Structures are given as C-alpha cells and as structure tokens.
Amino acid sequence: MSTTWHILGAGSLGTLWATRLARAGLPVRLILRDQARLQAYQAAGGLTLVEQGQASFHAIPGETLDNPEPITRLLVACKAYDAQQAVSQLAARLTPDAELVLLQNGLGSQDAVAAQVPQARCIYASSTEGAFRDGDWRVVFAGHGYTWLGDASHPTAPFWLDDLSASGIPHEWSADILTRLWRKLALNCAINPLTVLHDCRNGGLLQHHCEVAMLCVELSELLERCGQPAAAENLQQEVERVIQATAANYSSMYQDVASRRRTEISYLLGHACDVAARHQLHLPNLSRLRRLLVEHLQQRGLPSD
Ligand code: NAD
Ligand code: KPL
After folding, report:
1. How far is the CA of 170 from the centre of ligand 1 (A)?
2. pLDDT in tens, 137-148
3. Which of 29, 50, 52, 267 shows a CA-CA span of 20 to 30 A to 138?
C-alpha cells in the first residue's frame, strides 16, 4: 500500500503535483486552510488540470489542517513567507518517520521549516516547472521543466522518487541541492528586481547590461564567500543566457507586483543581502537594489518583507 501524499498549499504548484500524482493512481489528500475553503473545494468536487489545452478532472479528497489523521509524507507548496507557519500548524500530525518536500523558491524558509520539525526529514527542492491558476481549483501547466530534490545532511535518495517517475514529474536527486538553490537565487536576484524597477520584460534588461553585470560580480563574490563557489561559476554568462532565452517573458516578481501579490523578496534579494551582512561583505549595488525595490513596493502599498 502506497503512502499518502499530503499536499499543503492548494495553489499553482501544489495542485500541479497533486493532479499528476493522483492521475498515476497514487493516494493524495489536499490540506485546505479552514472549513470554509474545504466546503468550497468539496462543492467543486475536485481539481482540474489543464495541459496543452486539454482539461482533466481529479476528485482528490480534501481535509483541513486540524484533521487528526497522521501525516508521513508532506509536500509543502506554500509561498516561502507562509511555509513555516503552515507547517507549524501540522507539526503535531507528523509521524516520527515523516518526510517533507519543500518546494519554496529562494532560501531561508527551508531552514526555518526544518528547525520547526526536527524529527522529520526535510527534502529541499528547486523547480523550473511553471503553473498558474486560471480559476478556483483549476491549474494550467504552463511551462515544462525539471525539479531537483536533495537533502544536504543525508545523501541517500528516498525510495518514493519512483512515485514521481510514475506520475511523469521530471526530477533528479541532487547531491548539491544548496548549490542549485543558491544558483537559482542568484539568477533571480540579477533579473527579477530590475524587471520590476525598469518595468520591463526579461529581454528589456539587454538595455541595462552594465547594471546586470555589476550585480553578477557582487553575487559571485557573495556565493564564493558563503561556501558556494560552484554556484558562482560563469554566473554572468548564465544570467545573460536566461535573459535572452526568456526575453519575451515577465519575471515572476514582475507578475507578482503587477497583480498586487506579495513578493518573495525576503527569501531572494533580502536573503542575499542578509547573508552578505553576516559575512561583513560590502555589496553596494545589491544593497541599493534592495533599498530601491523596498521603496517601490512601499510606494504601491505592497508588503516589502
Ligand atoms: P500559490 O500562491 O499559487 O500557492 C500557495 C498556496 O498555499 C495558496 O493556495 C495558499 O492559500 C496556500 N497556503 C498558504 N498558507 C497556508 C496554510 N497555512 N494552510 C493551507 N494553505 C496555505 O503559490 P505557487 O505559485 O504554487 O508557489 C509555491 C512556491 O513554489 C513558491 O515559493 C514559488 O516561488 C515556487 N514556485 C512556483 C512556481 C510556479 O510556476 N507557480 C514555479 C517554481 C517555483
Ligand atoms: O525564475 C525566473 C523568474 O522569473 O522567477 C527567471 C525566468 C529565471 C527570471 O529570474
């Protein structure tokens, strides 16, 4: 009998995982915030996955955070700023051998979650898949990608990666997950805030080559200082490649600001600046970028943390 996948965070990525796992015949349960959300979900009867224009319906059972059933496998698919609090609400339900998969972008939230549940194994993930919701309980699979998973303190891959293979979720066990997360964080720091401040698509940054280059120099210095030299290798080249390859896209931070959603700034640029300060590293361009971004968010009445 397969272990049930509990999914915490019925948003874009959580429902993208839930529907694919359920489609493969695996047991899945969605954890909703409260009784009102559960009732709304039950009225819909399940989740709809839209993939290449084709919609499929999945009647996945739902429950609230305070359901008494124990949890052995938990996919945490909340935003970085919600993950710690959401997991704390479930801590008492985790079995002694519980395993958590943390899908949050950036860094900082994963360690906070792991400290909250020291008895559980926390597996960190970094994903380049893309999904968005086009209605309540509907998810559109927008960008095929890859998910790397790893556990910096325990190199053995869990046996349940087979569930991901069976579900068609492209993935790889990574021995250097922190390097991957730092590299993605650096890419996001070099691109996303500038797209917000210059009000442009990623490709618009081709007009701001020097600004991008100066950020890459400082980000590389930071990565080297905090023990991640591999994440610093050819960073500027990679940033330029991503800007070219995604020139027509708006960055995720740009989209958050445009839709007046809270950004994950504290786990991206904020985390980079905080770690630099801890290492007494003076990075003037990165600090200025953070200050300008915070001002920009505050002027628009958006949270700046
Ligand atoms: P989302 O906002 O669509 O979904 C998060 C969900 O968590 C929401 O439904 C929210 O209501 C729920 N939630 C928050 N607190 C909760 C609580 N206490 N109890 C129950 N539910 C709670 O976010 P998303 O786009 O799926 O992103 C999740 C994470 O994955 C982020 O860190 C994001 O950066 C990362 N990510 C997203 C994508 C993507 O394409 N969407 C791609 C790669 C990485
Ligand atoms: O991941 C991204 C994002 O928009 O969050 C890219 C496309 C790499 C830009 O930083």
Report:
1. 19
2. 999 999 899 999
3. 267
Mean pLDDT of 199-213: 98
Single out the residue of 74, 63, 142, 161 nearest to residue 114, CA to CA.
Answer: 74
Q: Would you state the CATH architecture of domain 5-175?
A: 3-Layer(aba) Sandwich (3.40)
Instruction: Say how far apart CA 2 and CA 162 lie, in whole Å.
Output: 11
Q: Is 79 noted as a catalytic residue in this protein? A: no
* Token pair of 25 as six digits: 């015949």
Contacts of 239 (CB under 8 A, 6+ apart): 186, 187, 190, 191, 212, 216
- How many angstroms separate the first and last alpha carbons of the chain? 43
Per-residue CA distances from 158 to 80, 172, 173, 290 (Å): 23, 11, 9, 38
Q: Which of 6, 20, 79, 184 is catalytic?
A: 184
Instruction: Encode pLDDT of 225-245 as tens digits.
Output: 999 999 999 999 999 999 999
Which residue of 7, 34, 65, 78 sits with most ligand 1 atoms within 8 Å of its CB, as the best mutation to test the pocket? 78
Reference 231, options 278, 272, 285; nearest CA is 272
